[in-house]
Structures are given as C-alpha cells and as structure tokens.
Specification:
Blueprint (H helix, E strand, L loop, with lengths): L8 H14 L7 H20 L7 H11 L10
Helix pairs in contact: 1-2
C-alpha cells in the first residue's frame, strides 16, 4: 500500500477520488485500512488549507429562517 502525503491540490483531488472508490470497504480489510489512512490525510490537508470558523448558533438559525422566508413569532401560546 503506497500512501504519500497530500501536498498540492492535485494530490488532494486524487485522494478524494480514491476515497470515493473505497467508500464501501469493510473495516479491517486492506481497502478499509487504506480508506482510513486517506481520510486522515485529507482531513489534515483540509484543516490546513480550508479553515472555516463555526458560526454563532443564533446567527445560523436566523440565517436559515431568512432563507426559508420565516419570521419569529411575536407572542407565544
């Protein structure tokens, strides 16, 4: 099993493509172990290159309500 670091975007895309082919691999098999290693490498690459801050929970709810054209109630029953 030849696994190499993900250093550039082409490596990243190739790893994602291979992960897609291994998604049905059973745990404990060589394919399952390869999947685990590739997922770990991809997660590390994404953490380094695609950092996303988590939104404030209240703001996330407000945003979703706005997307769905919902308004908060002004009174409760």
């Amino acid at each position: 099993m030849e696994i190499k670091p993900i250093r550039i975007k082409a490596d990243y895309r190739a790893a994602l493509k291979e992960i897609e082919t291994l998604m049905r691999a059973r745990a404990g098999t060589p394919e399952g172990e390869r999947l685990d290693v590739l997922v770990t490498l991809v997660e590390a690459y994404e953490k380094k290159h695609y950092h996303f801050d988590l939104p404030d929970p209240v703001e996330a709810i407000k945003f979703r309500m706005e997307q769905m054209a919902l308004a908060p109630r002004t009174w409760f029953r």
